[in-house]
Amino acid sequence: MTLSPRKRLVVLVSGSGTNLQALMDACENPTYGCEVVAVGADRAGTYGCERAENAGIPTFVCSVKDYAERADWDRALTALVKEYQPDLIVSAGFLKLLGQEFLSEFDGRVVNTHNSLLPAFAGINGPKDALEYGVKYAGATLFFVDPGIDTGRIIAQTIVPVYGDDTEGALLERIQVAERAQLVEYVGKLMVNGWTTIGRWVEIN
């Protein structure tokens, strides 16, 4: 059997890169259909970039503070990512909002993962907000990035139960395990099978 050329992933990180590592591990299997061709960060010294460098994957840093205007940073990040001709860009714990030029250049090819069942508990405190609200189920959402905050079209969601004695840390840890598995599964499905969108509905082909 001849395998099709592998799809090219660029992964953006801001921290330790646990989701990146999950994707890198999956890409070790030729049948996964993808390869991480570059890893970018918004700051120097991230462990995510170190993981990539140890695996022989090119890395780059594009820091907002190095540019006079946010639009200049967005333009520079767009140019850096474009060099690697990605089929999909994965925002994996990337702590900067992507700008209009970036999203226009890579329209419909940028995904992000969030630690709640969107549209509930968007923003940076998903598990904390879920606990405070008293929900019985939390989870993780994979979605296409748009200009809003956690407002893009939903690709997949996975449910994680909330227990009465949960702490924020315990709930977050369970969500992260589910989040990584979902990310790996659906990035592979998107790249191998493709997808169709009807309004806000995303269907894996």
Automatic annotation (TrEMBL):
Catalytic residues in the record: 114
GO biological process per UniProt: 'de novo' IMP biosynthetic process
EC number(s) given by UniProt: 2.1.2.2
InterPro entries xrefs: Formyl_transf_N, Formyl_transf_N_sf, GART
Catalysed reactions, semicolon-separated: N(1)-(5-phospho-beta-D-ribosyl)glycinamide + (6R)-10-formyltetrahydrofolate = N(2)-formyl-N(1)-(5-phospho-beta-D-ribosyl)glycinamide + (6S)-5,6,7,8-tetrahydrofolate + H(+)
MF GO annotations: phosphoribosylglycinamide formyltransferase activity
Cellular component annotations (GO), alphabetically ordered: cytosol
Record site feature (Raises pKa of active site His), residues: 150
Residues of the Formyl transferase N-terminal domain: 7-185
SUPFAM superfamilies: Formyltransferase
UniProt pathway: Purine metabolism; IMP biosynthesis via de novo pathway; N(2)-formyl-N(1)-(5-phospho-D-ribosyl)glycinamide from N(1)-(5-phospho-D-ribosyl)glycinamide (10-formyl THF route): step 1/1
CDD domains found in the cross-reference section: FMT_core_GART (cd08645)
Residue positions binding (6R)-10-formyltetrahydrofolate: 70, 95-98, 112
Transferase recorded as keyword: yes
Keywords: Purine biosynthesis, Transferase
Binding residues annotated for N(1)-(5-phospho-beta-D-ribosyl)glycinamide, in chain numbering: 17-19
Domain of life: Bacteria
Family to which the UniProt record says this protein belongs: Belongs to the GART family.
Function recorded in the entry: Catalyzes the transfer of a formyl group from 10-formyltetrahydrofolate to 5-phospho-ribosyl-glycinamide (GAR), producing 5-phospho-ribosyl-N-formylglycinamide (FGAR) and tetrahydrofolate.
Name recorded for this polypeptide: Phosphoribosylglycinamide formyltransferase
Species for this entry: Gleimia coleocanis DSM 15436
Gene name linked to the record: purN
